[in-house]
Design brief:
4-stranded mixed beta sheet; oxidoreductase; Butyryl-CoA Dehydrogenase, subunit A, domain 3; 3 domains; 13 helices; Acyl-CoA dehydrogenase family protein; Acyl-CoA_Oxase/DH_mid-dom_sf; 10 strands; Butyryl-Coa Dehydrogenase, subunit A, domain 1; AcylCo_DH-like_C; alpha+beta; 398 residues; AcylCo_DH/oxidase_C; 51% helix
């Protein structure tokens, strides 16, 4: 089979038929409705619901989610290529039911049986929406041990949660939110933090506002004023939240990196199509050496980033320590997306700044990627310290 443009960009031959079907669904069904989905509000919810019905009818719903609860149980190693195809649109994971993978996996592994039975099946079906709330105003998001949100246990074993969280993805329409709160110890202690599953309809829970990220909706701020939480809604071991959060973050950052690869390839395709099709008084753009430099540098960024991301996937799938590889993959993928999209905008000229291409949205994602899920500086420092510590323990030698 002759490799497609995407194959040549990816540096591979051959395809997974499911990945191909997902790629076609995103291209033909999701991408044309991105303006509606980007706008937020009732129109976006109706468009998302219609696309979800189509995804279910096409047999593409919840591919990586647990079969036990209605998903299709696709293994992570195989899903990685599908995640790239889904991620070509920022709305792909939500439309195809994989956006809940982190929440479903966390509840499946760490929730009490009653909570698993109550929430997992409707979560996988898309009937319940979940969010994850860790970051707080005035508290460095890179140091969760400093969270100010607190949960106090009542005599009956239930909890009351008080605090404020922001940059909570999907908070505006969440039915349940996993909240990181201090249940013991003092600020700065890494022990004494717990994860509690909070219902958005509980007394004292308030959605404060939407927080646009470079103009786009999707993040929110919430306030918790003595919100009651049943005793069995603690996720994992009380006081040991950072172990569960770390597991979640490791997979979450890798999934984001896979999706950024998909968006980077989309920007690359747009750039190359523009260069090949645009003709000026000095000939086609593709004949200009500076445009060729943009194409080469973008392809190099894509080709060198992909193996880093898939190495992290392989380690996670194998249950091994992937902290260094995830840090490298996250930083590389975020930089790649910003670089490739910037080059595509440059090749498009003024057309790349307006609403007629996806490039402004991809540029926004690329820039935000270098801050969300841990800024570049956090990952650079953590990876470098880990590497240098290993050299120090081994001794310098002669």
């Amino acid at each position: 089979m002759t490799p497609s443009v995407q194959d040549r960009t990816r540096g591979t031959g051959g395809e997974d038929p499911v990945r191909d079907r997902v790629e076609e669904f995103v291209r033909s069904r999701v991408v044309p409705r991105e303006p509606e989905l980007d706008a937020g509000g009732p129109d976006a919810r109706r468009a998302r619901a219609a696309l979800r019905r189509e995804a279910k009818e096409a047999g593409l719903w919840a591919l990586p989610l647990p079969e036990e609860f209605g998903g299709q149980g696709m293994p992570l190693l195989r899903y990685a290529a599908v995640a790239e195809a889904e991620g070509a649109s920022d709305h792909g994971p939500a439309v195809l039911g994989s956006a809940s993978l982190l929440d479903a996996g966390m509840l499946d592994r760490h929730a009490r049986p009653a909570v698993r039975d109550r929430y997992l099946r409707p979560l996988v079906a898309g009937d319940v929406s979940a969010s994850y709330a860790m970051t707080e105003p005035e508290v460095p998001g890179s140091d969760p041990a400093l969270v100010a949100t607190r949960a106090e246990q009542r005599p009956d074993g239930s909890w009351r949660v008080t605090g404020r969280k922001w940059f909570v993805s999907g908070a505006a329409h969440a039915d349940v939110v996993t909240v990181l709160a201090r249940t013991a110890g003092a600020a700065g202690d890494r022990d004494g933090l717990s994860l509690l599953l909070v219902r958005a309809d509980a007394p004292g829970f308030r959605f404060v506002r939407e927080i646009p990220v470079l103009g786009a909706a999707g993040q929110g701020e919430i306030e918790l004023d003595g919100v009651p939480v049943p005793a069995d809604h603690v996720i994992g071991t009380p006081g040991a939240a950072l172990a569960v959060a770390g597991e979640r973050l490791q997979l979450g950052r890798t999934l984001r990196a896979l999706r950024w690869l998909g968006q980077g390839r989309r920007a690359f395709d747009l750039m190359c199509a523009r260069a090949a099709g645009r003709v000026g008084s000095h000939g086609p753009l593709a004949s200009h050496q500076l445009v060729q430099q943009h194409v080469f540098d973008a392809l190099l960024a894509l080709r060198t980033t992909g193996p880093l991301v898939h190495e992290a996937v392989a380690l996670i799938a194998d249950g091994r320590d992937a902290r260094t590889e995830v840090g490298l993959a996250k930083v590389a993928a975020a930089r790649m997306l910003q670089q490739v999209t910037d080059a595509a905008v440059q090749v498009h000229g003024a057309a790349g700044l307006g609403p007629d291409t996806a490039l402004p949205a991809l540029m926004r994602v690329g820039r935000a990627a270098r801050i969300l899920d841990g800024p570049d500086e956090l990952h650079i420092g953590a990876v470098a310290r880990r590497v240098l510590r290993a050299y120090g323990e081994a001794g310098t030698g002669a």
